[in-house]
Amino acid sequence: MLYLPVIVVHGGAGALPEELREIHARGCREAAFRGLEILLQGGSALDAVVEAVACLEDNPLFNAGTGASLDEEGHLSLDASVMEGSGLRAGGVCALPPFRNPIRIARAILEEGRHVLLAGEGAARFAVARGFEPADPASMITDSARRRLEEVLRGRADGHWPGGTVGAVARDAQGHLAAATSTGGTVGKAPGRVGDSPIPGAGTYADNASGAASATGEGEAILRVQLCRSACDLLLHGLEAPRAASQAIAHIGGRIKGRAGIILIDRNGQVGIAHNTETMSWAIARPGELKSGWRWEGSQP
Ligand code: ASP
């Protein structure tokens, strides 16, 4: 039996200034389209989410890969993970020094299967041994990332984010699910801080038996409620994807005042998107359909 492929991407929850909203939505559209092309050529959900996220990492507008947010010392420290739903295989990098596409290194960890998470120097050494080239930080740090850090350090911004973490979830023609997430983390974070994005169950989760999810927002809050796993569990309890997404966000907001967003698909390819932040850019691509926005208000994508 063949399934209708679908891919959903997000470009981060936060409060995007008006002038950036449409170009963020366009970046999400491009990434979703790239992922859909892969699915239509017979690629797996895992291939599609990795390539969609790599496309967003290469786009300097987003807080991942090139253009990612800086820690309080002005360094890049990158988090990313990927998970696939048929064997619950997962791979993630935490506090990785500059490499162009952390998500591809996360995938290499998943494929190797020896460990799930590698951090810092060890993650960098693994990457080099697998043929990934460390990047010159200057080539990945953008003026706008420097400006954002300066504003946070001077107390002119609240230390969080305008938005820009990236993620993708997909179902392929075989019915397999996958999820991927990549970020530079919160602006002005402490050196060594790891957020939710690389942690399976928190920022990323996929299980063919339930669904696939990628989160964005306050990493500390997302970690504490295990947002992606709990949204997928709601699917197991019979909720439809849109309800599961909004209930998971209502829970993080109601229980610990966490601000977050989530994209979710279930095994039937139904999509849920929810956030309690001002904006969250997103795009959905299915054969014959490509739509995007910077705020999700609907309940039935
Ligand atoms: N969740 C990310 C983190 O805390 C940030 C974000 O989504 O904007 O690292």
Structural description of this entry:
With 301 residues, this protein is of the alpha+beta class. Helix content is 35%, strand content 25%. The two termini are 24 Å apart. The chain has 9 helices and 12 strands. Helix 2 packs antiparallel against helix 3 and helix 8 (227-236) crosses helix 9. The strands form 2 sheets. Strands 4-3-2-6-5-1-11-12 form an 8-stranded mixed sheet. A 4-stranded antiparallel sheet has the order 7-8-9-10, covered by helices on one side. Bound molecules: aspartic acid. Aspartic acid is lined by residues 12, 63, 161, 165, 183, 185-186, 195-197, 216-217, 219, 222.
What labels would you give this structure?
35% helix, alpha+beta, binds aspartic acid
Bound molecules: aspartic acid
Q: Report helical residue fraction.
A: 25-40%
Rg, nearest Å: 17 Å
Number of helices: 9
In short:
The chain is of the alpha+beta class and 301 residues long. The chain has helices at 18-40, 45-57, 102-112, 120-129, 137-140, 143-153, 219-225, 227-236, 241-256, and strands at 6-14, 78-84, 89-96, 117-119, 166-171, 177-183, 204-206, 211-217, 260-266, 271-275, 279-286, 289-293. A hairpin with a 5-residue loop joins strand 5 (166-171) and strand 6.
